[in-house]
Amino acid sequence: MNIELLVSKAKQVCDNRGARFTPIREKVFRLLASKQGGVGAYDLLEELKLTEAAAKPATVYRALDFLSELGFIHKIESTNAFMLCHHFDHTHPVQLLICDSCGNVQELHSNTISHELNNLAAETGFVVTEQTIEAHGRCEKCKD
């Protein structure tokens, strides 16, 4: 998807929610929008320092926290990385297919998987408030 279109959409979401899309937040958003897979916070910091020499780890982590709170990004827990969500205008179940070979991450949205997990959890009295399912393997390009 076009990065400028994503930025415009993100700004609109921020305006609608009364949130500030600061220049630093926008730069981190743009960095994530330009990547195919997950990106670590320190890799983002090194790229951010190219235009923001004074950037520190806290700068990136604050921006990532903001982007996460608004649903703009997903954290890939198993690799401690972050990726842009291209569907941030609505909440949705998330399943991530993570290629262990090239690092590409594909985002899926299966309501069937989400409902099954919620139903199984409910049978034990557990209420799921947030779910991201991660699956590791090899993508189509790397499977051979």
List the helices and strands in order.
Answer: HHHHEEEEHE
Taking strands numbered 1, 2, ... along the chain, how are they ordered across the largest sheet?
4-3-5
What low-confidence regions span 5 or more consecutive residues with pLDDT below 50? none
Overall pLDDT score: 93
SS content category? alpha+beta
Quick one: CATH class of the largest domain?
Mainly Alpha
Query: Tally the helices: what do you get?
Result: 5
**And the CATH topology of the largest domain?**
Arc Repressor Mutant, subunit A
Largest sheet: 3 strands, mixed
Spatial shape = globular
Rg from C-alpha positions? 16 Å
Number of strands: 5
Subcellular location: Cytoplasm
Family: Belongs to the Fur family.
Keywords: Cytoplasm, DNA-binding, Iron, Metal-binding, Repressor, Transcription, Transcription regulation, Zinc
Main location: cytoplasm
Describe the structure.
By secondary structure, this protein is α+β, with helices and mostly antiparallel strands. The protein has two domains: 82 residues, Arc Repressor Mutant, subunit A; 44 residues, Ferric-uptake regulator, C-terminal dimerisarion domain (Dna Ligase, domain 1, 2-Layer Sandwich), CATH 3.30.1490. 42% of the residues lie in helices and 17% in strands. The chain has five helices and five strands, in the order ααααββββαβ. The chain has a three-stranded mixed beta sheet, with no helix packed on it. A two-stranded antiparallel ribbon has the order 1-2. The longest helix has 15 residues. It is globular and about 50 Å long. It starts with a helix and ends in a 7-residue tail after the last strand. The model has no long low-confidence stretch (mean pLDDT 93).
